[in-house]
Amino acid sequence: MSEDVAGSTFVPGYAGHADTVARWLSDAQVRAWVGEALVDLADRLDLGGVRERVDALLMRCEFADQLVIRAIEDDRFGEPDLAALLESYDRKLIDAAKAATTTTNEGLTGAIESIERAFDERAAAIAEALKR
């Protein structure tokens, strides 16, 4: 991710994809940042009917996607096109979580849907790219 998207403004110390260790770290950093945004959301708003969905998203933040783990282990993100793909979907995930940090009760369901969609699209894109 470029510095203006995942640098200190969004994900402090973003590790990038320079090597395997950095890839592990950057995946964890993005998930942790999204998780923190969700916790903030839960602290600010009454989650009511979306509590289970938020809890499910928090689990996605806590545990790495196994396709991502496999791709890191196989050094697939060392390929520039796959690293760029992952970063573009991480950017969407971060943007969705960032929007949630300012949402109100009226926008809560939409914010949750945006984060769910970003996670789902990221997983689908990675799965498709790994088939190549």
Describe this structure in words.
With 132 residues, this protein is mainly alpha-helical. The protein has one domain (3-130). The chain contains six helices and no strands. It has helices at residues 3-6, 20-44, 51-62, 66-73, 80-100, 108-130. The longest helix has 25 residues, at 20-44. It is elongated and about 40 Å long. The two termini are 23 Å apart. The model is unreliable at 1-8 (pLDDT under 50).
Topology:
Elements: H1 3-6, H2 20-44, H3 51-62, H4 66-73, H5 80-100, H6 108-130
Helix pairs in contact: 2-3, 2-4, 2-5, 3-6, 5-6
Please outline what is shown here.
This protein is mainly α.
* Global geometry: elongated
Radius of gyration: 15 Å
- On the 0 to 100 scale, the average pLDDT is 85
Structural class: mainly alpha
Helix content range = over 70%
Report the portion of residues in β strands. under 5%
Largest sheet: none
> What string, H for helix and E for strand, traces the elements in order?
HHHHHH
- What is the tally of helical segments? 6
Provide the number of structural domains.
1
Q: N- to C-terminal separation?
A: 23 Å
Number of strands: 0
Q: Low-confidence segments, ≥5 residues, pLDDT <50?
A: 1-8
